[in-house]
Amino acid sequence: MTTRTRMTKKQLAQEARRRSADVDAARWSLAALAAQAKAEGVPDWAAVIGVECRRAPATVEKWASTWEWCERTGIGMARAALPYSFFECAEKRAATLGDEAVIEMLQEYARDLGRTYESFRAQLSTLAGGGGYGDFPDWIHRERKRVFDWIDRVPTLAAADCLRRAALELANVLAACEVQPQ
User: Fold this and answer.
1) pTM here?
2) Which end of the chain has the lower number of beta carbons within 10 A, N or C?
3) For 98-104, which contacts have Cβ atoms below 8 Å and span 24 or more sequence positions?
């Protein structure tokens, strides 16, 4: 019987670097590594992997969460048929829609190779009560707030006027999406 030792930060960093040669193709492997490191209580596990993969710790935490959700729900059979992004989106919406509904949709998309991630995300957003635009209106709203934060800090009045016009245009984009700023 072989006794396995717990990973150290250095071992974790080396393993993350090895697995992240192509981050998009290696997401499942990195998600498994992140979940393992989290479960083993490796200090600063998300930051360590994030540094080696050039990703924010929050992104690494999403990888671990997605892996854990897939393990908990037993959705592994669809992994070969769909890219990782489908599962990250599904895990995010499962809290609102329930595991069963989201898994059924994953299986439906796995059977139909012509359907895209973008349509999957939009369909989930619609089912969850959104407008089917995914996160776009939320992104516009956040960017508009960021523009407002800078208006009083720019070095010239002309720059402040440009930012005011940018904020107005972002409000117009929100209106075109039929989503009102919060």
Assistant:
1) 0.62
2) N
3) 99/73, 101/127, 103/73, 103/75
What are 33's two structure tokens?
């590594």
**Residues contacting residue 167 through CB under 8 Å, at least 6 positions apart:** 144, 147, 148, 151
Contact 177, 137 (CB under 8 A): yes
What is the reported pLDDT for 62? 94
Rg, C-alpha atoms of the chain: 20
Name the CA dihedral angle for 105, 106, 107, 108, rounded to a multiple of 10 degrees: 50
pLDDT digits 0-9 by tens, 19-59? 754 555 678 889 999 999 999 999 999 999 999 999 999 99
CA dihedral for 122, 104, 127, 84, sign (positive or negative): negative
Distance CA 28, CA 92 (A): 16
**43 near 64, Cβ under 8 Å?**
no
Mean of pLDDT values over 121-125: 87
Sign of the C-alpha dihedral, residues 18, 74, 80, 131? Answer: negative
Counts of helices then strands in the chain (DSSP H, E): 9, 0
